[in-house]
Amino acid sequence: DGTELTAKPKRSFYAARDLYKYRHQYPNFKDLRYQNDLCNLRFYKNKIPFKPDGVYIEEVLNKWKGDYEKLEHNHTYIQWLFPLREQGLNFYAKELTTYEIEEFKKTKEAIKRFLLAYKMMLEFFGIKLIDKTGNVARAANWQERFQHLNESQHNYLRITRILKSLGELGYESFKSPLVKFILHEALVEDTIPNIKQSALEYFVYTIRDRRERRKLLRFAQQHYAPSEHFIWGPPRKQKSEGSKTNKKPASPISIHNSYISKHKKSKEPKNTSASGSSAGKTTEERKAELTKNMEENDQDEQEMNCDAVRQNNKEKNSDTDTGQLSKSEEIHDVSDRKEDTPHSKKDDENLNNDCGNHPGTIEQDLCDTENSSHNTSVDLQDNLDKDMLSGGTTTKNQ
Whole-angstrom Cα distance, residue 247 to residue 368? Predict the structure, then answer.
C-alpha cells in the first residue's frame, strides 16, 4: 500500500559489522590448519575439480559460459570461483588463507582464469568489462539480463561475494567502477531498482578506501528518490540495543542504602508476629506493646553491635584471609574485563566512524559498564563481611 511504498528504508547494523570485519582484514585463525592445502589455488591451476560437482575450472570457463540456466540454478560453484576468508554455503569449499592469497597473486595462470571467471559472471548479469582498469558498461544482452537481475535477488549475494573476492586477490580497484555502474542503473536509469538497497548496504561497503566509499554515497544521495529517505549508514549501536545501553549503573551509595533497608526489613517478621498475636487486643494495648517491642529491638541492636566487635576480634585471622581472597579475585576479574575492553571499544569506534556516526556514546557505555562492575563487586564484598558478622552475633543472641 501507499504507507509501505513511502516508508523510509532501514540499514542493518549486522551487515555493517560484517563488512567492517572484511575491510579490516578479518583475522583468519585457520592459516596454520590450511597452509599446506591450497585447494583454491590448485583448483584455479586446473589440478583438482570443485566439489561436490567434480567439474574443473577449464570446463566451467568454456562450457558454462553463456549457459544462464546452469549459472542461475547451480549454487555450489560460486564459492570456488570467488573464494573468501570465510565459510560459504558450500561446505566443500575451504576458506582462503593469507599464505594462499600471496601464492595466488604470484601465479599468472590462476590470475588469468580468475579474470575470465569475473567476465563470465558480469556477462551473466548483463555487464561487460571494457578495459584493464575495471571499467564496465552494458553488455549486448543487458535488457534481458537486467530484468532477470531485478527479479532474482539471490544474485545480490553473489555480487557481494564477487566484490569481496576481487579485493582479496589483488583487484580492489575493480570494485568502485562496478558499484558506480550498478548505482547509476538503479538510481538514474531505473533499470534495476530492486538492487539499490543491497548496493547501498553491501556493495558500497566492500570498498576499503574510505574516500571512494564517500564518493559513491554522495553520488547516490544526489540521485536518490525521495531524497529525504536517503540514509548514509546503519543506526548507531546503542539505538539497536534499545534501552539496555541507556540504563546507568546505580551509585555505590544507593546500593549501600538499599542494603541497609533490606537489613532492617529482615527484622520485620518479629514485629509482625507480635502484632499478629495481639490481634484481639485494644488499640491502646497494641500501641504499648509496639513501643515495648521497639525498645527491645533497639536494645538488641546495641547488644548485637557489642557482640559483633567481640566476634570480629576472635575471628580476625580467618576474616582477614577471606577478605584478601575475595579482593584478589575481585582484582583479577576487573583486570580481565579491562583487558577485553580496549578491543571492543576500538572496533565499535572504528565502525561508527566508517558509517559517519559518533562513537562517544558507546565509549561512555563501556566505561559505565566497567565502573558498575567494579563498584558492584566492592559492595558485594562489604555485604559479605557484614553478613558474616551479623550471622555470628545472631547465633550468640539466640
Answer: 10
